[in-house]
Design goal:
Layout lengths: L6 H11 L17 H11 L4 H14 L3 H5 L3 H8 L6 H16 L8 H5 L6 H12 L8 H10 L10 H11 L5 H14 L18 H5 L16 E11 L4 E5 L10 E2 L21 E2 L4 E4 L4 E11 L9 E3 L11 H12 L1
Parallel strand pairs: 1-6
Antiparallel strand pairs: 2-3, 2-7, 4-6, 5-6
The structure holds a DNA duplex.
Length: 346
DNA sequence: TACACGTGGCT
DNA sequence: TAGCCAAGTGT
């Protein structure tokens, strides 16, 4: 039986190869990072790549340097700043969490997993990540990277998601008493840069000698996954209304559900059936030839775009007109930006 | 317990 | 091109 413990080799690798990231304190620095910045980065990094997060993290920490600043922000400003990053429930919960921490906890995040996980938007992964990275607690962090590394290390052929409890057991057995935060980040760095899903770079892997999948030559086949259901196609209509003065008709979407709390063009529901037109204002409508296509997590969307010019005194049934000086396409979620781009080019 | 929930980059 | 994939959480 080979020696399966990886933490020593992995930490030695991390000391040399740790990526420099804006929310990270270097492995050689003898201090812990600001919990606010750790929390903010971990929320942004949920199901989101480092490359996508960097600009948003810079914008947020510049605009709201402390949790008190963020707690005092206007909801619409935070949603606009988050626009484009996706999973907008994260932004709504981010504000809720900031207000609890600033209001009820005197600005201090809980220093342990149990306390952290009671806060909005913080689940099993994020509570362990903050507790270990920001507070030095020995907690086991399990994300997609860790699951992949453990599946290969132990040559676990049980498919995900069935294997989740097993992989967590493996991860807990590996977590060291000391430097748990560095170790957690080291496994995630390894998964992101070496033990990648498609073509793992086993030739430069610091824990290659421990890896059962590598010795069996099955690393590219792990972790196994159950097949996913095909994505249905949904259709709808988006209405772009321009007033004589250049104002555009927008509405804030309901708090719950898809794109909740975000600005968007009025439109029909999105369904697998052909949409029935329900224009938000009386006007002469023009249907654009090209349609907007967008892929969500669980369905594909095809939006037909209807545009109209209306008089200054026109009254809408829903939504509100936004002056050109107040309108920024970047405040919209991406699918709504696509609608805007198409209507502007036509 | 499944499913809802975004987006952009890569293959 | 279409599917896969990413530092998950809430319901």
């Amino acid at each position: 039986m080979r020696d399966m413990l990886i933490s020593a080799d992995l930490l030695a690798w991390y000391d040399v190869h740790a990526r420099e990231l804006p929310w990270r304190v270097g492995p050689k620095e003898d201090r812990l990072p600001d919990p606010y910045r750790v929390w903010l980065s971990e929320i942004m990094l949920q199901q989101t790549t480092v490359a996508a997060v960097k600009a948003y993290f810079a914008k947020f920490t510049e605009t709201w340097p402390t949790v008190q600043d963020l707690a005092a922000a206007e909801d619409a400003d935070v949603m606009a700043a988050w626009a484009g990053l996706g999973y907008y429930a994260r932004a709504r919960n981010l504000l809720k969490c900031a207000r609890v921490v600033a209001g009820e906890l005197n600005g201090a995040f809980p220093d342990n997993r149990e306390g952290l996980q009671k806060l909005p938007g913080i689940g099993p992964y994020t509570s362990a990540a903050i507790a270990s990275i920001a507070f030095g607690q020995r907690e086991t962090v399990v994300d997609g990277n860790v699951e992949r590394v453990m599946a290969r290390l132990y040559a676990e052929e049980t498919p995900l998601p069935t294997s989740k409890p097993l992989l967590r057991d493996y991860a807990e057995a590996q977590t060291p008493k000391n430097r748990a935060g560095d170790y957690a980040q080291a496994v995630m760095d390894l998964g992101a840069t070496v033990c990648t899903p498609k073509s793992p770079a086993c030739g430069i892997c610091p824990i290659r000698s421990h890896c059962n999948a590598q010795s069996q030559g099955i690393e590219r086949e792990l972790p196994k996954k159950l097949p996913k259901a095909a994505k249905p196609v949904r259709r709808g209509i988006a209405y772009v209304v321009r007033r004589e003065d250049g104002a555009v008709l927008l509405e804030t979407r309901p708090e719950k559900g898809l794109l909740g709390g975000m600005l968007g063009w009025p439109g029909t529901d999105w369904a697998e059936t052909e949409p029935v037109s329900e224009p938000p204002i009386d006007a002469d409508w023009i249907t654009l030839n090209e349609e907007v296509r967008h892929a969500f997590t669980h369905f594909h969307l095809r939006l037909t775009v209807h545009v109209a010019e209306v008089r200054q005194d026109a009254r809408a049934f829903r939504g509100g007109f936004v002056d050109p000086s107040d309108f920024r396409a970047n405040d919209l979620p991406t699918v709504m930006r696509k609608v805007h781009a198409l209507s502007s080019s036509s």
